[in-house]
Predict the structure.
Amino acid sequence: MKTPDIKEEHYLFRQTLRLIIETEVAPHAVEWEVQQEIPRSIWQRMGELGFLGLHYPEKYGGSAADFFYSVIFTEELSRSMMGGFCAAVGVHQYMATAHLAQAGSEELKQEYLVPAISGHKIG
């Protein structure tokens, strides 16, 4: 459904995110669930693609993207039907780093938020 708030960039973001989930995550989901571990390499890949810092300021490695990117992100995670992966990534992006970004000192943001957005530290 097209709306005036959803722009072409949002559709391109959805398309890219869906492709990454289908090709780089889904083929390994069962294995990761059995091992009860998501490899650091996929966290770093998601960070490299800008998926872990959508709403955070650019000065910390985020995209400072609008709210609709977060909506699309959570929709596509849910669409994947991979509960463990969805929960882990959602908690990392929207819970574990949120208070740090909002109330953390600059020193803490540099030490933890920046590497969390890049996927090198996991919250």
